[in-house]
Amino acid sequence: MRITAISLDTRIEQIFALQRATRAARKSEPTASRIARLKGLRDAITARIGAIEEALHTDLRRAPNGGKEGEIPAVLGEIDLAIANLEHWMAPQPVPASPHFQGSLTFIQYEPRGVVLLLGAWNFPFALALSPLVPILAAGNSAMVKPNELSPATSKVVAEIIQATFDEQDVAVFEGGIEVAEALQQLPFDHVFFTGSPTVGKRVMAAAARHLSSVTLELGGKCPAIVAPGYDLVDAAGKVTGARFNNAGQLCLSVDHAWVPRAAVEPFCQIVGAVIDKMFFVDGELQLERLPRLVNERNFDRVKGYIDEAVARGARIVRGGQYDRETLTIHPTVLVDVPLDARIMQEEIFGPVLPVLAYDDLEQVTAQVDANGKPLAMYIFSQQQAFIDQVLLNTSSGGVTVNHVFMHYLEPNLPFGGVNGSGMGRYHGHAGFIELSNGRSTFIQGGSITG
Question: How far is the CA of 222 from the CAs of 13, 161, 177, 350, in angstroms?
């Protein structure tokens, strides 16, 4: 069943009513029905790899790679994991009965939350619209999806995939700007899944609170890299550089800034510069096709403003600093001597700029990390367990990777998410299934019921 195009508010209300009316039928569907929807999504994606990559290049100047790396395989991996494990995930999970309730049957049955609102993000506009859709469907929910308007070409492809794959009683898509998001948030969804900035996340959570809707918020924060004294600078600088300038720094998991022992700052920056050369330059010329652009002029001006304000207050540019507003390009930039109260150290950068900060005492680092709030990720480079333990004991973050970057995100068996200002809720793999389900505790006196 499809609802014809009418006014936005009416269409939203009618599809919401349709999805709500079919909650009971969807709840009783067998595993095979959920798997069929996931397979349909997979087929629709693999049939459009070229179109997806063209859209990502149009929106962000992201270089195509035939779907071998990046957003497309991330979504396909989520689908494959859910298909392989869904029967086990859906089975009642037995819980041992307490001694004084022996003979009774106790278990948890995971049931769908119901109708879910999914609000995508612009920086990874394909994966962050469709990766969360996987656990939403695996858990038996319906969804109303809004791709992000700041990546319009990708939003269009996402909409085409959803419309070609799903009946609107199962998944419906709504393209548009803030007015569409606000209209959707007027409705009493059973759950809201949002990826984006903490500022917008607060508004999403406030809207959900009016209906007591549960929420999953994937936000961000100032994710630090902390390099221990004596650690291999080539290894640390190489990994930090790759993480910082991935997608031109427009990544919630990106290294926001790096703490390095004072004596190691200069050699660390030299290595970072050499890695930047290898990644983005040929014969001294920046290759634009290797560096995604800033998403729009507002974000370009914001990031450039951070650099300008930091330099005006004494920071030094040791690499980069060039920019071209016409192409929305800021060269990979490295700053040192950055005041800790500069705007670039107070707000998430979300751009191709790496402040490298000197430290003499680890307590100085952990105090500053704590002052900046709990980030989505933290990266520790050390071969000393005592150093690692001290950082972990005196900080908090959504996740941690030691001696590498992004790995706690890439491991599908680890729950992924933030804490407080960097988000709430967890997804990926089984954690996503649980997040998008209601774990219904069930107690049967005497252990059985006769039919």
Answer: 38, 34, 27, 9
